[in-house]
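Lecture 7 notes. Example A: sequence first, then its structure tokens.
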Amino acid sequence: TVQERPAIASAGAAAFTVGTAGSFTVTTSGYPKPSLAVSGTLPAGVTFTDNGDGTATLAGTPAVGTGGTYALTITAANDVSPVATQSFTLTVQERPAIASANAAAFTVGTAGTFTVTTSGYPNPALTQSGALPAGVTFTDNGDGTATLAGTPAVGTGGTYALTITAANDVSPDAAQSFTLTVREKPAITSANAATFTVGAAGSFTVTATGYPKPALTQSGALPAGVTFTDNGNGTATLAGTPAAGSDGTYALTITAANGVSPNATQAFTLTVEEAGSPPGTDDTTYLPLVLSD
């Protein structure tokens, strides 16, 4: 009988994938046939089995969330010194997933930031498609996270439909539909005065910007026959037929509010004129009056 000390002949690394059955055979030399053991933490779903013939099998289906690198030590022993040891690396690849929320809200003129987070191994790279508001950028941080940040420019209020993609060469890539809402304080953009005529239907449209669309209200006395109506779309209508005797000047205040401070207010003047035109303003011909002694 010729005894021979053990040696591990197989590679020092293997790669498995989460959710997929994998197997790796550890092989040895030496006589008698070495027995094999492993130390170090194995991913859930994976086992190490000594086959009793100088080989061992590392096999199983890694569980979700076990992506990463596992440092193991494999030992072969057959009572012939010294024992053989091998530093072994088991890499568990895991497809990417986006773990962070699918929406964020920024405000025009205020710095905002949102962190996109992922799972998977290797750490996924992150990209974004879809138009961003001026002043806002998307940056892959190189560690499985990305940062959406910046100060949205004036006039960029609205909703932006984006797609965020995470990829790490383990199929399939992860894609997330993401909504960036940019809130913007209200502003009234229409003129601050209008003129109606007694007995004639008149109308004036108040317009406002901002996001969400501002609600519009009015304070101050209106002439009889005239109303102020919020249209629910960022506009309002001042309309009606001023009643007889309602001529005059009406000092109003129009307010636009959408939950983004401050509200917008406008001092508005509604002038109501009496019906009729002075001489020379219509098609009537007026002859000079001649007086005699």
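Example B, a different protein, same format:
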Amino acid sequence: HSYACQTWEYECAWKHVRAGGIIASDDVGWSDTTPDNPHHAWDNFLARHGLTGSDLKIKNACWVRKP
């Protein structure tokens, strides 16, 4: 669950999801060291793609629909 690994996973999946498709991620609050020190890979992914936030968030899992 490193920042680099999660970032790679999000970007790889994003390339293959069509418009209207959904990307889901669990453990968005985890980090390289502890769950109490999140690295924000999910939030940074959303920002890079101009997304305002997750469409759905339940605890440590998030979903976003590709425009």
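Note on Example B: Residues 14 and 49 are 10 Å apart (CA to CA). The two ends are 26 Å apart (CA to CA).
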